[in-house]
Amino acid sequence: MKHTDRDAVNIVRAYAIELVPMATLAIRYNMTRQGIWKILRRAGIDTSKQTNGRIAVSCTVCGQETTYNRARFRVTKHPFCGEQCYHAWLGHGNGNPLIMHRHSARIARKIVSKHYPLTDKMIVHHEDRNQHNNAIDNLRVFTNNGDHIRYHRDFEVPILWDGSKQH
Predict the structure, then answer these.
(1) Domain boundaries, the chain
(2) Phi-psi domain of 17 (left: phi exceeds 0; alpha: psi -120 through 50; beta: other)
(3) CATH of the domain spanning 5-91, picked from 3.20.20, 2.30.30, 1.10.1740, 1.10.10
(4) How far apart are CA 167 and CA 157, in angstroms?
(5) Smallest Cα–Cα separation from 137: which of 147, 125, 145?
(6) What's the DSSP call for residue 60?
(7) Average pLDDT over residues 20-28
């Protein structure tokens, strides 16, 4: 299939500005990666890893310009120039959802461990699925992550400890 001039403009924009990978563009436009590469080369876009593998971005905290690998930047919401800015960002109430989830999971485990002896494999579940609601009646304990997932999929699994029945 022959591409149009409009396709070429869209391919260049998607690669250079939206940071879409060549493989994804090839699928999107029903072309080979080599065909995408030729369009980018004709447009003057350097696709070599040495020069174009890294892009300039501004640090979320201090605004200092730093460089990121294209693939890493595609999956990064908040770029940082270094660990100091990253920890400063975390310290101001911001947070990576994964880190915040781990923190709330630790709090839940601490609360439950006052009422039930936990092992490392046991999973503390929030019944309302709000990881920040650590009310005792919202917490349940499962033997392992497999039982926890089966519970979410409406299978009948044993609940080792139920906080709603503690009152």
Answers:
(1) 5-91, 97-165
(2) alpha
(3) 1.10.10
(4) 22
(5) 125
(6) T
(7) 90
For 152-165, write each residue's pLDDT tens digit.
888 999 999 999 88
Contact assessment for residue 3 and residue 12, using Cβ atoms and an 8 Å cutoff? no
The answer to whether 167 and 115 are in contact (CB under 8 A) is no
Burial 58-75 (b: 16+ CB within 10 A, else e): ebbbeeeebebeeeeeee
Torsion angle in degrees (nearest 10) through CA of 27, 28, 32, 36: -140
Q: Are 89 and 61 in contact (CB under 8 A)?
A: yes
